[in-house]
Amino acid sequence: MRLPMLLAALAIGLTGCAPAPGSDVSKAAFNPPLALPGPVPLRSFAPTQAPAAQRSNAEMAQDFLDLNFRMESGRSLPVLTRFETPVTVALTGHVPASAQSDLSALLSRLQSEAGLAIRQTNGPAAITLDFQPRSALSRAVPSAACFVVPNVTGLADYRKKRGSAAVDWGRLPSRTQIAVMLASDSSPQELRDCLHEELAQALGPLNDLFRLPDSVFNDDNFHSVLTGFDMLMLRVHYDSALRSGMTEAQVAARLPAILARLNPAGQNVAGRPKGISPRAFLSATQTAFGANAGARASGAARMLTLARAEGWTDGRLAFSLYAQGRALTARDSVAATEAYAQAAQIWRSLPGGQIHAAHVDMQLAAFALSSGQDDAVLFLTSRALPVARSHQNASLLASLLAMQAEALGRLGRGAEARLARLDSLAWARYAFGSEDKVRARMADIAALARRGARG
């Protein structure tokens, strides 16, 4: 299940940096309204292959067990389940225009990188991708941007079976029919991100783990598309040495040989298995990135206290520092910058942590833009842009390019500023969808630039 709370916080990223922290920004909030040149084509990402997983096999063996034998609720699962026949996928409901191309690219990656026998079909399928209005999804599962359910054909079927044994993951002997519910009125990027995580969970892991720096199976939602680690987990899940119905002990006994065969490079990498984060950390995270702006600081403080009490030095500590920086942005820029810098230092030392550090660079670029430090804006955005492109994060790309355009304009480099702004708008249409949301995003960044110009 993908959580919109964190997705919105991280995709937008500037919360607290805008002139009125925590407030909604609309077209009417700016005088004059921001003019958008048009028409600007909507950009999309070309198919690509993710770099291979870089962590130790011993560490990833424990990750596999915790991803497949635990659920996000904390409940344990008795046996491994998977599809035991080739998998078909079908689109149904109010299918958005961008869904088909993104699904085709994803299925191609699952075939080539995870080695899965999976293809799209028309009519009944093993996995149904049901696109329905966000309001309909919210009535079923209020906290989710998208979600996956076994033994149903779509949202209507789920409503009939909800609460019954049929939709209980813990009672499945194997997987035969699964539906993924997605909001048809989401932006193209939101839909693509949901496609990646929820289709992968329909096929394999059902859990999310905060300790993973290199995976979409992490509720921090920094990774937008399936990573090399995720593809390896799916390849292991469907290895011939495993089958539905195996217990955790049986799977654990076979994992070392499977990983040594599928990922020989991981045999010589140092790394120890890590424990599951306590439920209190998830609760604190939900508060720190939640809708209640007044409670975010206390949530971030609890995250950091728990991280230090647990002795974490990994991405969970970095994420706690990031949350603290975000909570302090409006009232103590020096302390916020220091928290961000500490978070980035940790993330840059972790495999898969580059995209997290790029988000920090965006936050620091926002500080620099609002204080008139245009050379710093160009340095930070230029460092983060290649990472945003390689990780296919259009919202981050659009924001970085918009900041870069503002800084270039103030430095008198008008032609370069115009190119960066047009590039930003093209990615913003994919990232945010509607013109109103694109305007609001660009207006946020223009307001930062105006503040810096006055300073």
Overview features:
455 residues; mainly alpha; Collagenase (Catalytic Domain); 17 helices; 52% helix; globular
How would you describe the overall organization of this protein?
By secondary structure, this protein is mainly alpha-helical. It has 2 domains: 4-44 and 274-454, Tetratricopeptide repeat domain (Serine Threonine Protein Phosphatase 5, Tetratricopeptide repeat); 57-268, 3-Layer(aba) Sandwich (Collagenase (Catalytic Domain)). The protein is 52% helix and 6% strand. α9 packs antiparallel against α10. The chain is globular and about 65 Å long.
The gist of it:
This protein has 455 residues and is mainly alpha-helical. 52% of the residues lie in helices and 6% in strands.
**The CATH homologous superfamily of the largest domain:** Tetratricopeptide repeat domain
Just give the CATH class of the largest domain. Mainly Alpha
Which outline best applies?
Answer: globular
> Quick one: biggest sheet?
5 strands, mixed
Q: Classify the beta-strand content into a percent band.
A: 5-15%
CATH architecture of the largest domain: Alpha Horseshoe
Q: Which SSEs are present, and which pair or pack?
A:
Layout: H1 4-12, H2 57-68, E1 87-93, H3 99-113, E2 118-120, E3 127-132, H4 134-140, E4 146-150, H5 155-161, E5 178-183, H6 188-203, H7 228-237, H8 248-262, H9 279-288, H10 296-309, H11 315-328, H12 333-348, H13 354-370, H14 374-390, H15 394-410, H16 414-432, H17 435-454
Parallel strand pairs: 1-2, 1-3, 3-5
Antiparallel strand pairs: 4-5
Helix pairs in contact: 2-8, 3-6, 9-10, 10-11, 11-12, 12-13, 13-14, 13-15, 13-17, 14-15, 15-16, 15-17, 16-17
